[in-house]
Amino acid sequence: MGSILKPIAYYLLPSWGLVLYSVNNCSPLMPQVAIFSVAAMVTTTWLFHGLWQILTPPPRTEAKPSPIKARILMALLVVTAIACLVFAYQTGAQHDYIQYSKQWATILSGADPWAGTTNAYGPVHNLLAWPYNLHRLLPKALFALLLVATGSISAFTPLGDNDRTSQLQRCCLFAVFTLSPFCLITVNLYANNDILPAAAMVLALIGAVAFRSFLSRFLAGGLLALGAMTKFYPLIIAPSLLFRRRRIDWAFTSGFLGFLVFIASLAYRLWGTSNLTPLLFASSRESKHLSLFNFTRSVLNLNLDQYSTLAMLLVFIAVTWFLFKQKIDAIPGAIIVFAAVLSLYKMGSQQFFLFFFLVAPFAIRYLLATSNILTPKLMATFFIWMGFLNWYQLDYQLTCQMWEWPAKAFRQGGALPYLLISTLLAVALAERILSKDLRSADPPEATV
């Protein structure tokens, strides 16, 4: 067991230490901003360097690490969940969770959840008012548990295909992505409710491609609908799952539409047409953080926010059509189209990227087993992209959420390096998809 846990701790402990330090220490001033930014960059680089080393080990003659028994692995995951719960409880209500609490209090009073509140979420978010009524931090605890559960499923669930990763690699994928500073801050510290749609998207993908039975695909569709009724962005990946290899997946489609209609009908009976308020609220907000529209508005003094929806729609149609023509499978298809659309969404807040951290362990394992798309170049570019997101969130916390100068420069200008890295990743992906040597490995057909 030590041969597996030691390398993971070796690469993750610096990042965890910086996260714990950031809970009680932050500064938007120099020289602390420079020190914190460099520290966040170094720990992030070390983290993903470790993952690279473990995923691409050099040829060795010594014996492989002895595998951890299933019951011991389960015990370690339970301990991890408990540690996450303790961290979530000790840090209390922070960030958006303070606003959630006010919204849930409004719901418990019997008032309209969207009237006169900052509630920009779907009806499933409103249901958390009842666990909140039992304890004010119970929804936050549920978020922390859902993070560990989803990450565990992503890293350790059977693929349904030949899994080419070792147990050490699967454990490392779980630890680096699920327990990264990005996830610990987004979910365990801030308790952003994006864990609900992100987890729903990941579990829907896994249920649809790994198990393939009619029931699993039907339930996967229901999960995606559940996520879409929390926040609407899971709808972006729906076409990748509704149409598989140019065929309609009727099991997934029936589950998705059935649950969607049921939840929407129930919400209409409870709150009427107020359910549409989140759509109007989202369109009225200013661009933020990693959105290119935030950069043009904040730095260039050119407000193009009103074009965000049109740009997203055009990119969604173009990328979806390209993936459809190339017969790209659901896993890479969902990741590519969501990343493309999100890059042009004016609300470029960090929590929207949580999906990529949760799906990464499964996606890497699945693509290694079913295709040769993951070349070293593409993997390295993907790690740089994920590393930037991790650095940005960690630096955001260390610099008191980048509200004051000089830290505010990252809030206004962060979209520029993000756009550059995203472009490099998009080019690398396009090269692989269009390359002649890409093996189009069709997974076994689903059972209708």
- Low-confidence stretches are 439-448
Tally the beta strands: 4
**Globular, elongated, flat, extended or rod-shaped: what is the shape?**
globular
Q: Helix segment count? A: 21
Q: Helicity, in percent?
A: 55-70%
Strand content: under 5%
Class based on secondary structure composition and strand pairing: mainly alpha
Query: Quaternary arrangement of the chains shown?
Result: single chain
Structural write-up:
This protein starts with a helix and ends in a 14-residue tail after the last helix. It has 21 helices and four strands. The strands form two sheets. It has a two-stranded antiparallel ribbon. The protein has a two-stranded parallel sheet with strand order 3-4. It is mainly alpha-helical and 448 residues long.
Task: Write a brief caption for the model.
With 448 residues, this protein is an all-alpha fold. The chain has helices at 2-24, 32-55, 70-91, 96-108, 123-126, 129-134, 138-156, 167-178, 181-189, 195-211, 214-228, 238-242, 250-271, 277-284, 292-298, 308-325, 330-342, 354-370, 376-398, 408-413, 415-434, and strands spanning 243-244, 247-248, 288-289, 347-348. It has a two-stranded antiparallel ribbon. The chain has a two-stranded parallel ribbon with strand order 3-4.
